[in-house]
Structures are given as C-alpha cells and as structure tokens.
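Supplementary Methods, section 5.1.

A reviewer requested that the exact input to the structure prediction be made available. We therefore reproduce it here, unchanged from the version used in the analyses.
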Amino acid sequence: MASISEGKPARRLESAAKRTTGTTRLSIKGQVVIPEAVCQRIGLKRGDQFLVLADKDTICLRLLHPPSGREWSHLQELAKLLTASIGQPAASA
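The structure derived from this sequence is encoded token-by-token as follows.
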C-alpha cells in the first residue's frame, strides 16, 4: 500500500485556501454566470473565451489565451509551409 508523505495534505490545504468559489444557476437560455469574486480573482473580462470540458457531473472551464505575436507569426509560417506542400494558397490574416 502506498504511503502519503507528510507534506502533501498541507499542500492540498494551502492550495484550497487560494481558491475562490461560488455558486451559480443555469438560466433558461442555457447560460451560466461566473460569480463576480471568481471573475475578479482571475481577471476575467467580457468576451473572454473558454474551453469547456465535461465528464459526468463535472464541468471545467479553461480560459483560452490568444497566441502572442511571436506564436502567431510562427503559426502563419507553418500555415504557409503546409499549404505550399499541398499546392494551396495560404489564407492571409
């Protein structure tokens, strides 16, 4: 049987203490409002996009971040290479 090191429960409690929680309801339109305290804690703003993951009775939202300028340039170059390899013109942004 595996043993639990003495530091792990303390780290879990410390991590839990840093979390902000709240409750919400599903509206008739299928919308969920994220509690204001949570929005403030992680700096959410109108228009932010999320990846939604669901499993049984758990729903997880992951904030999506747009690519940086460098990442965007890399993605454009990659698109050019890929489309050139199949003989299609790359779409410009």
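Residues 49-93 form one domain. These observations are discussed further in the main text.
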